[in-house]
Amino acid sequence: MEEVKTKRQSNIELLRIIAMLLIVFHHFAIHGIHRFNPGIYEALPTASKLFVDFSLPGGLVGVGIFFMITGYFRISKEKISLLKVILESMFYGICLSIVILVSVLTKSTYVDYSNIQTAQEILKHIFNPATSYAWWFLSSYVILILLSPLINKVFYHIDLKGYLILLIVCFICVYTIDRFVSSDYYSITRGILFYLIGGFIFRFVKLENRLWLKKIIFISLFIIGWSLFSIYNFFAYNPSIFELNSFLLKPEIKDTIEASLLAPISIVSLFLFFQTFKIESKGINFIAKTTFGIYLIHDSHILRNILWKSLLPNGLEIYQTNLFILYGLGISILVFISCMLIDILRILFAEKYYLPFIKERINSFFNRHMSNDDSIDN
User: Fold this and answer.
1) Element (H, E) at 325
2) Confidence bin at 224 (pLDDT 50/70/90)
3) Count of alpha carbons within 13 angstroms of residue 288, beta-carbon side
């Protein structure tokens, strides 16, 4: 299979940045409010509740976009490269393990680990970040990349009709059913589905004529999908307001409709919307490199607890006014920017030293102990 060389497209890199920002807003809503501070949501006025629930779709949408971007750029490739991703996760695993130790030793109220749990978390974050679900997205991404040569061998050569048939079968018989039955492998099948959609767009979708009309159509579909998704969440979290006891609000049905209808509309339309732009920006490309680091820093098992409990103070005064909307916007953007700056420091002052050093050690090992001269790619 002949690989198609792809260069960074700043429109897609900008989408990558926005997708991560959407994910941070989702984590503010789901972790900061609904999971770690559930009493806050009940105290919020209606406008603030709507703001929280309008932030919720960012998780499914942002993750789907990242998988689509992966498929878009990888569908034509044979080689796999995971060293950089694994080393970055191990780097932050070490940093977060220090946070775990300090939290346990200082008897932080945000962390209540036994000695065994502390050891487990440290080992998981440092030595097995890709296989231990220390970060679920990382584990799913690694499995997807390992599967990608086999997926690409089929889907890069199949014709349009065959691709569509297999995509529909995957969407209905694997992805949707996995969501409905709460399969343990749903995070992987989700990655495969949106990887295939990204690959489909790379191979068959060409946006050239009447771009202004397509921009309007795609952004309209995104707004519709996102709004329906958000309103659905609002109904589900406030059934007493509307005296609803609908079959559609049952968790299994709600999750399936969101994952199989509302989220895909938002994900695909937003991706196609950004496809209609042609942008070249080294600044955007550089910031986009930090998105994985932003995810690793703010959504580890240990730090998400500390982060969202410390940023959402006790006392209900602020939550009972619509100033909470500004507060929620502010702390979500603050988390994004702070994590971005931390990862920029890693890129500038750490990665340029540890990455070449470890690659050289690995290549030296294989050159010494294998009969071929294959080297480790980025």
Assistant:
1) helix 323-346
2) very high
3) 19
- pLDDT per residue as tens digits for the range 90-140: 999 999 989 888 887 887 777 777 778 888 888 998 998 988 888 999 999
Task: Tell me 110's DSSP state.
Answer: T
* Amino acid 372: pLDDT: 59
Q: How far apart are CA 32 and CA 41, in angstroms?
A: 10
Please tell me the distance from the alpha carbon of residue 94 to that of residue 108, in angstroms, as a whole number: 19
Q: Distance between alpha carbon 344 and the CA centroid of its chain, in Å?
A: 19
* Structure tokens, 140: 């799913």
d(CA 212, CA 44) in angstroms, rounded, equals 40
Reading the block at residue 373, the tokens are: 């001269």
Nearest Cα residue to 61 out of 123, 19, 18, 6: 19
Residues 37 and 233 sit within 8 Å (Cβ to Cβ): no
Tokens of 89: 């996760």
pLDDT tens digits, one per residue of 244-272: 567 777 888 889 999 999 999 999 999 99
pTM attached to this predicted model:
0.93
Report yes or no: 138 and 70 within 8 Å, Cβ to Cβ.
no
Judging by beta carbons within 10 Å of its beta carbon (0-12, 13-18, 19+), is residue 114 exposed, middle or buried? Answer: exposed
Q: Would you list the DSSP string of 247-313?
A: GGGSHHHHHHHIIIIIHHHHHHHHHHHHHT-----HHHHHHHTTHHHHHHHHTSHHHHHHHHHHHS-
Find, among 168, 260, 266, 263, the residue nearest to 222 by Cα: 266
CB 109 within 8 A of CB 310: no
Q: What are phi and psi of 108, to 5 degrees?
A: -60, 140
- Structure token digits, residue 176: 């949707």
Query: Which residues have a Cβ under 8 Å from the Cβ of 148 and sit 6 or more positions away?
Result: 74, 77, 80, 195
Residue whose C-alpha is closest to residue 83's, from 367, 374, 370, 358: 358
Spatial separation of the C-alpha atoms in residues 347 and 343, rounded to whole Å? 6
